[in-house]
Write a structure and sequence with these properties.
The complex is a heterodimer of chains A (318) and B (249). By secondary structure, chain A is an alpha/beta fold. In chain A, strands 6-7-8-3-9-10 form a six-stranded mixed β-sheet, with helices on both faces. Chain A has a four-stranded antiparallel β-sheet with strand order 2-1-4-5, covered by helices on one side. Chain A has a four-stranded antiparallel β-sheet with strand order 12-13-11-14. In chain A, a hairpin with a 2-residue loop joins strand 4 and strand 5. In chain A, helix 8 crosses helix 11. Chain B is built from eleven helices and no strands. In chain B, helix 3 packs parallel to helix 7. In chain B, 45% of the residues are buried. Classes of the chains: A alpha/beta (318), B mainly alpha (249). Chain B: It is a multi-pass membrane protein. Chain B: Pfam families: ABC2_membrane. Chain B: It is found in: Cell membrane; Membrane.
């Protein structure tokens, strides 16, 4: 385990101009375990406590309660040791407008103890790997959003950390840059780097992450691999339209069917494994002389998972 | 820690040197005073040669440079909170005091360079200053710079908002400047004001500068200025370092 933490809590008190101070329970008790070499996603709507969680794990905030180990060191007791082992790319990115990517990256490397020559070599290497060698000597402020994001990644990776935190890494990026960044994050996993990222994009969590924690209101509401989560909570959805009534009761009697919902003249049949259940369902309908008008099947999405756990859609919650 | 101070200092100096024009703005205002105001002041004391009038006027301008350039360094660090640079450095094993001290050293370096430019220009206008006295004054300027930039970083990290910092610094710097007797000699001031300025360390800095430029090392203000500003510099530096620790854990 590269991260093994339990019951992390953080409460903020915000002072308002008028009235009593307001207490915000940003994180109410989160347990997180991340395995070495996996891409772990923290998925949730804005304000769910994702950033607070990742900032606690990255030693930027002291937890009010709870603790554990991050990269082999005690999070609360040895933040200095933890910092040697991690890279962190915040939402703002941390790229200085008034100096070049090269000098900033060299400085970051040397703060981590590299010699000048070593830092220069490593800077070249990471810039080449991220495809930003030609930007090395530009001023920070002249870079585009996507370019800055890659420089930020270089700044977080120059010291070869075994653990990298990315807070909303693709927010605001166009599809092209987003796909590139996903590839680069997958490339890190190939090299054995563990990555923890926060996101409020369903497709990103689904496509990029090996395992996920879905958070809402400062607690983890579901955890597992994307396919586990979808399987466990909702499986597949088969949608049927029939000319005659009575099919709903027939389908409910089948042991492989979890739930049937009537939605107008369409039946939504929730099953564990659609591909294998579908032939069974069709045979059952045929046996009862029920004729199909149309048939469809969808995999349950992470949004279905969020919906069943919180009663809201992630799209509405954000 | 010293290695990290050197690293931050080197980085900041290089970044400043990439935009050398900016540091010129810090001395523009005092330079205008030198060119457009000093001749007027000189005429209020008929019979005193212009070079001697400049010798009394220039130390005040140096203190002005110290305030106008060092007191405003906090804006830079607010920018670095906004773009995440400070947060990124906070996650690194960088020594916390070094994050502030590297910047403070850069500020002091810039202040000394700016002071030298101003002194050289004043000399071109005919000022003659006592050389050892001038060097001691530069040392005093360095201490003033540490005080002012420490104060600026402390305030900046406390308010973290450019819109709040700007009026705050104007509010602070205006009376500090007026109560030094830079514009007109304090001997013109009413008694209550003369009593108040005794508590302004910058007044003593200006008085110390005038004495030092004359070559008079016996002036009491020299000791008062050094002692009070070293104490204040230590206080504000401690404040800014503890502020950095607080925002970065």
């Amino acid at each position: 385990m590269i991260i093994d933490t339990h019951d992390l809590k953080k409460t903020f008190t915000t002072r308002k101009r008028r009235g009593a101070p307001e207490t915000v329970h940003a994180v109410r008790g989160i347990d997180l375990t991340v395995k070495k070499g996996e891409i772990f996603g923290v998925l949730g709507p804005n304000g769910a406590g994702k950033t607070t969680t990742i900032r606690m794990l990255a030693t930027l905030l002291t937890p009010d309660a709870g603790g554990g180990t991050v990269a082999g060191h005690d999070l609360v007791g040895e933040p200095g040791q933890v910092r040697r082992k991690l890279g962190y790319v915040g939402q703002a990115g941390g790229v200085n407008d008034y100096s070049s990517p090269r000098t900033q990256t060299m400085l970051a490397a040397r703060i981590h103890g590299m010699s000048k020559a070593e830092a220069a070599r490593r800077t070249e290497e990471i810039f080449a790997a991220l495809g930003i060698a030609e930007l090395a000597d530009r001023q920070g402020r002249s870079l585009s959003g996507g370019q800055k994001r890659r420089v930020a990644l270089a700044l977080g990776l120059v010291h070869r950390p075994p653990l990298l935190f990315l807070d909303e890494p693709t927010t605001g990026l166009d599809p092209q840059n987003r796909a590139n960044l996903w590839d680069q994050i997958r490339g890190l996993r190939e090299e054995g780097t563990s990555v923890v990222l926060t996101t409020h994009y369903l497709d990103e969590a689904d496509a990029l992450c090996d395992r996920l924690a879905i958070v809402d209101h400062g607690v983890v509401v579901a955890e597992g691999t994307p396919s586990e989560l979808k399987q466990r909570v909702a499986g597949d959805v088969v949608t049927l339209r029939l000319s005659a009534p009575g099919a709903a009761d027939v389908l409910r009697s089948a042991h492989c069917v979890r739930e049937v919902r009537e939605d107008g003249d369409t039946l939504r049949v929730y099953v564990d494994d659609g591909e294998h259940t579908l032939p069974v369902l069709l045979r059952l309908l045929e046996e009862h002389g029920l004729t199909l008008q149309s048939l469809g099947m969808q995999h349950a999405s992470l949004d279905d998972v969020f919906l069943t756990q919180t009663g809201r859609s992630l799209r509405d919650a954000s | 820690m010293f290695r990290h101070i050197a690293l931050f200092y080197g980085h900041e100096i290089r970044a400043t040197m990439r935009n050398p024009a900016w540091s010129l703005f810090g001395i523009m205002q005092p330079l205008f005073y030198l060119v457009l105001f000093a001749p007027l002041v000189a005429n209020t004391t008929p019979g005193v040669p212009f070079g001697d009038a400049l010798r009394d006027f220039t130390p005040g301008l140096l203190v002005m440079v110290a305030l106008f350039s060092s007191l405003f360094v906090g804006f830079g660090i607010i920018g670095e909170i906004g773009n995440g640079v400070l947060e990124r450095i906070a996650v690194s094993p960088a020594s916390r005091p070094a994050i502030v001290l590297g910047r403070t050293l850069r500020d002091v370096t810039m202040l000394i360079l700016q002071s030298l430019v101003l002194v050289v220009i004043a000399m071109a206008f005919g000022m003659r200053a006592h050389l050892p006295g001038l060097l001691v004054m530069l040392l005093l300027m360095a201490v003033t710079g540490v005080f002012a930039s420490g104060l600026s970083y402390g305030l900046a990290l406390a308010v973290r908002d450019v819109n709040a910092l700007s009026p705050m610094l104007s509010f602070l710097s205006m009376p500090l400047i007026l109560l030094t007797g830079i514009m007109l000699p304090m001997s013109f001031a009413p008694a209550w004001m003369q009593a108040v300025v005794q508590f302004n360390p910058l007044y003593h800095t200006v008085e110390a500068g005038k004495a030092l430029f004359r070559g008079d090392f016996g002036e009491l203000s020299i000791a008062i200025a050094f002692v009070s500003l070293i104490a204040l510099a230590m206080l504000t530096t401690r404040w800014s370092i503890s502020s950095i620790r607080r925002i970065t854990l």
